[in-house]
Amino acid sequence: MKKYLVLVGILISFFAQAQTTDRDSIRLENIYLDSVFIFEIENVPGEKPKVLHAEPLYIDLIRDLGARKGEKEWNYGFGMKADRNYDEYEALVEYEWAPIDRLGLEIEVPLTFYGTSAGNTAPSNRIESLKLAAQWSFMVSEKYNTTLALGYIHEFEFTDLNKISEEGLYKGNSFNPFFVAAKRWGLNYHTLIYTGPRLIREFAHSHTEHIYEINTNFHYMISGTRNFIGVEVNKELINGNLITTVRPQMRVGLSENLMIGIVSGIPLNRENRGLSSFARLIYEPGFKSMH
User: Fold this and answer.
1) Sign of torsion, CA 39 40 41 45?
2) What's 125's DSSP letter?
3) Pick from 91, 81, 64, 20: which is nearest to 276 by CA?
4) How far is 265 from 263, CA to CA, in rounded Å?
5) pLDDT at residue 27 tops 60
6) DSSP state, 121?
7) Where are the domains of the chain?
């Protein structure tokens, strides 16, 4: 009996050690893949170094932080927001590029359409605006895996489609300077804050609407890829009221230069909005991973 117990103990110890060895091997392989992939992104021969960061999918950045000259990207987005009386559908087309190192530029056209249930009315369909934006990464620290950037978005806001003949096409401006701070913790964990005021001035009104935005982000990037899962928390301070939406999200690579991002929106102020969803197709011409 004692011999039997000793044999069982030896077998259990052997299998436990084997499982530990397998876990250690997988962990070391993931560390290796992460290190190689990050090195490829951050250290391109003849180019300025940059730090790999996970970019939020709903309130996205104006090109990568630490952008290099010649980088470019197309984005196509579509989303839906549920409301008590109508559904809101949003779409966007945007193009972003880096004319010089560290500077990203963007042009975007967002659109909004509405669907109603019986007996309810909804706002008019519209091309929201023409958005022009710039973002300058003024600090890129490889030592601390941190990037800081300043940016500005200007929106030329358009009139509802059914009112253009009466009120004209152009109804006002939106001014949005912002600050970005991003840090990668180790190889996989990413944090980012995007914050700044947004001032809306319409020609038909004498006052300016003031909104302060605070967007905080946390992401986990899958080993050896640009795929990630995470959460984006969008907060707006309007007239002393804080409106918050939590957006769980994931990004998956379809090929080396094509990715898709999927976002859910959960409002914490349920009296204002319902649940929402959003998808973003991201195409980067010329991007190629070396490993």
Assistant:
1) positive
2) P
3) 81
4) 7
5) no
6) -
7) 1-42, 52-283
Tokens read off for 7 = 């044999």
Phi-psi label, residue 174: left if phi above 0, alpha if psi -120 to 50, beta otherwise:
beta
How far apart, in whole angstroms, are the C-alpha atoms of residue 71 and residue 257?
12
Distances (CA, A) of 56 to 199, 220, 274: 22, 12, 21
Tokens describing residue 149: 């950037």
Which residue type is seen at 169?
L
At residue 129, what are phi and psi to the nearest 5 degrees?
-175, 175
Taking only the tens place, the pLDDT of each residue in 253-275 is 998 889 999 999 999 986 656 78
Q: Who contacts 112 (Cβ-Cβ below 8 Å, separation ≥6)?
A: 88, 89, 90, 91, 123, 125, 126, 128
Q: State how far the Cα of 176 lies from the Cα of 198, in Å rounded to an integer.
A: 4
5 pLDDT higher than 50? no
Half-sphere exposure of 79 (CA within 13 A, CB side): 24
Question: 48-62, 73-87, 277-291: which has the minimum mean pLDDT?
Answer: 277-291
- Among 216, 206, 210, residue whose Cα is nearest residue 176: 210
Query: What are the residues facing 244 on neighbouring strands?
Result: 235
Residues in the chain, how many? 291
Q: Where does the chain show beta strands of DSSP type E?
A: 72-82, 86-100, 103-116, 126-127, 129-141, 146-158, 170-185, 189-202, 208-221, 228-238, 241-255, 258-267, 276-283
CATH fold of 52-283: Porin (2.40.160)
Residues 6+ apart with CB under 8 A from 269: 243, 244
